[in-house]
Design goal:
By secondary structure, this protein is of the alpha/beta class. It is built from 15 helices and nine strands. It is an enzyme of class 1 (oxidoreductase).
Length: about 350
Amino acid sequence: MLDIEKLDGERVSPSLDINPLKLFDIAKSQGRPLYAAAPMVRYSKLAFRQTVAEYGADLAWTPMILAKEFNRSIFARDSDFTTSIKVPPTIVQFGCNSPIELSRATTLLAPYVNGVDINCGCPQSWACAETLGAALMHKRELVAEMVKEAKSALKRDGFEGKKTVSVKIRIHKDLRDTVDFINTVQAAGVDFLTIHGRLRSTPSSQPVNLKAIEILTSHTTVPTLSNGDVFTVADAKLHAEVTGVGGVMSARGILQNPALFAGFDSCPWEAVEMFMNKVTRAPIPFKLVVHHVSEMVGSDRAGGQTGGGAGPLLSKDQRMEMMTCQSMLELMDFLDGIREVRRL
């Protein structure tokens, strides 16, 4: 069941009228890349997507949703997707290895999102064991068939030209294989691509391969996003300049600092308050709330690749005290106390 608020009796969000491809054009006209918030397991839920939109994210991804389970289980539909009239342009990402399952899932969610994305980048072993995520990087023809089926579903349901089908990928050790993959899905009609510049086996502690993204972008004929190691707006602009992409996507950086795309080099206190306000209206499990806030107030990363930043909002002792909170009320009281101290 979709948690969709009603406005004047209509289940419609104004942002749903926006084709994501138009957002690339708007960003280009403003002399910058498109800013995107990545799909993150458990963490890119509605309240977080709403928060990053308040701070300049143009486009936000849902966490990966398993298409087969979503199609068959009301419990999956209850827990995996939530939307509202106050939602940023949103891409739903599916974990899927079946064209027919993707077609069905696209039909279910197309009215409530701006586009559908196929996850070909998740490196987790469980996903690859199920032929999902990065395992699909070796099944380009299957991915192409899924692109075609999703596009057909959009056309059948009256969304042709209004919603997009995209693919998020990683790179192969031999970039010629990645070029073949890109050419295949482009021929199938994919609307845009996101390239994470790491191999499936590359840990996030190693720098993203911008040179590889640059080479691959020279072979794309559709708008392209660069993903990996974007912690500040300066990082985003550097990625765009080096690789030639039309947009950049942040995961770890925006999790730690939802105000990243508004130009803040580290998370401002107001972003913590913004998120808490959003999450009271679009609840998620309490443990996830605590994790979100701990990322925002506790990151020691300052300034990304380009330097700067102000360090963590809370001390180590304060963060340890926060972790002892057992409920939303306790957490809100704790944060209110910190806010009062900060005002002194």
